[in-house]
Amino acid sequence: MTAILNRIDQPDDLHALNEEELVQVAQEVRAHIIDTVGEIGGHFGANLGTCELAVALHSLLSSPRDKILWDVGHQAYPHKVLTGRRDELATIRQYEGLAPFCSIAESQHDIMGAGHASTSIGYAVGLKEAMRLRGETDAGKVVAVIGDGAMTGGVAFEAIHQAGGLGTPMVVVLNDNGMSIAPNVGALSRYLNRVRLNPKLWHAREGVEGRLSELPGPVGSAFERLGPQLKESIKALWAPGLWWEELDWAYVGVVDGHDVRALRRALSAALAADRPVVVHIATVKGKGFAPAEDGGLEGMERWHAAKPKSIANGAPAPSQPAVPGAKTPPPQYTTVFGDAMVAEVRRDRRVVGITAAMNSGTGLNILQKAEPEHYFDVGIAEQQAILFASGLALEGAKPVAAIYSTFLQRAFDQIVHDVCLQRLNVVFALDRAGLVGDDGPTHHGVFDIPYLRCLPNIVLMAPRDEANLVHMLHTALAFDGPIALRYPRGEGVGVALPTMPHELPIGRGEVLREGSRVAIVGYGSGVGKGLEAADLLAEGGLEVTVADARFAKPIDTALMAQLAAEHELLVTVEEGVLAGGFGTAVWEALNDGGLPLPRIMRVGLPDRYVTHGKPALLHAEVGFTGRAIAQRIEAAIGAASGALAGA
Ligand SMILES: Cc1ncc(C[n+]2csc(CCOP(=O)(O)OP(=O)(O)O)c2C)c(N)n1
Question: For the chain, which terminus, N or C, has the lower number of CB atoms within 10 Å?
Answer without folding.
Answer: N
